[in-house]
Amino acid sequence: MKTKDKYLTVSDVAKLIDVSPDTIRRWGKKGLIKSIRSKHNYRLFNIDEVKRLNNKINGVGGSLNDFKILTTKDRTNYNCIELFAGAGGTALGFHNAGIKHKCLVELDKNCVATLNYNKPEWEVIGGDVKDVDFSNMEADIVEGGFPCQSFSYAGKNLGFADTRGTLFFEFARCVKQIRPKIAVGENVKGLLRHDNGRTLQAMIDSLRKIGYRVVYKVLRSQYLDVPQKRERLIILAVRNDLSLPFLFPKEKDYTVSLREALKDVPKSRGQEYPSKKKHVLSLVPPGGCWRDLPEKIQKEYMMKSYYLGGGKTGMARRLSWDEPSLTLTTSTAQNNTER
Ligand SMILES: C[S@@+](CC[C@H](N)C(=O)[O-])C[C@H]1O[C@@H](n2cnc3c(N)ncnc32)[C@H](O)[C@@H]1O
Questions:
Q1: CA of 154 to the centre of ligand 1 (A)
Q2: Atom of ligand 1 nearest to the CA of 89
């Protein structure tokens, strides 16, 4: 069978592995399997990928994926400055790719303490990026998951200056002062449509104006060996005088479940829910949501949202052991947020 023949319609795939077409659609909707569109706009699924998921979920002779945390033993000659480092998620990826951190900048003192604790060898500048002068620094790469703020792109076409006052401006200022070979920006997928695309365009224009070729792409982490569904817009910029190619990672044909990812982790205190929320969620099975609660509790817990339309499947939602985690938020204890 040629690879292209391995893509089949929902009903053909369902027949072949003996599950209902609705199951295939549900797996697709949940982001557990990918699909492509046929020329007649039908969804097509890769049969090997679907078989593998079926084995995993239904235990049909299935085994866990052979996933690895991608880490190179060889260090590269590249070094990097990381802005908005948070607790070091992206920084760890760069480190695992063999890239040396020259310094990291982060405002939040708990994040700084976490970075210092986990990686005492990294130089962390704890403070506001606006106060950091990069003009005497050098680096091959500048990376930053700049928090996205609204700014008015009044059509002035000023590029860099249009973004003044935002944290993107600080990212671009760092790129302008350092002139790295490569700059990598990271943001939420919503930036694509923010102000009808003008915000993103202004960012791209400003990087172009300071001498970079720019591309961007939304990456889906659950297909890249990450046990979490998280879509992020990645902006890649390469300095105009270099002919480096733009390469994005190729999506895998499997996802990593929480069961696999958390297999050997030590016990941790984690974050506690308030007692009322804890009680409600104890009534929901793993992978379930508000629909699994008795009606009286549904109404009490969801209040006005109970009467709104839509599936609301994010409410009172528990993670499933057999799937990647849903996107984690910073405040699990907030109203209407369980993770
Ligand atoms: C979206 S998070 C980045 C997460 C990071 N990439 C990671 O992997 O954990 C943005 C970070 O920017 C930090 N931040 C916000 N304003 C800042 C500022 N003015 N200067 C430095 N850091 C700032 C926040 O504290 C937060 O940790």
A1: 27
A2: 8
Report pLDDT digits (tens) over 199-210.
899 899 999 999
Structural domains in the chain plus CATH codes = 3-58 (1.10.1660.10), 79-239 (3.40.50.150), 273-339 (no CATH)
pLDDT bin (cut points 50, 70, 90) of residue 90 is: very high
Task: Give the C-alpha separation, 331 to 271, whole Å.
Answer: 9
DSSP class of residue 328 equals P
> Within 10 Å of residue 91's Cβ, how many Cβ atoms?
23
Indicate whether residue 107 lines ligand 1 (CB < 6 A): yes
Global confidence as pTM: 0.83
Residues 6+ apart with CB under 8 A from 29: none
Alpha-carbon distances, residue 190 vs 154, 310, 313 (angstroms) = 20, 20, 20
Residue spans of beta strands (DSSP E) within the chain: 7-9, 36-37, 43-46, 79-83, 100-106, 124-126, 141-144, 182-188, 212-220, 231-239
Question: Among this protein's residues, is 103 annotated catalytic?
Answer: no
Question: If pLDDT is split at 50, 70 and 90, which confidence band does 198 have?
Answer: confident
**Is 144 a residue whose pLDDT tops 70?**
yes
Query: Cβ(316) to ligand 1 under 6 A?
Result: no
Q: What DSSP state is assigned to residue 248?
A: -
Q: Could you tell me the distance, in angstroms and rounded to a whole number, from the CA of residue 167 to the centre of ligand 1?
A: 10
Taking CA atoms only, the protein residue closest to ligand 1 atom 19 is 128
pLDDT of residue 252: 87
What is the rounded distance in angstroms from the CA atom of residue 65 to the CA atom of residue 62?
Answer: 9
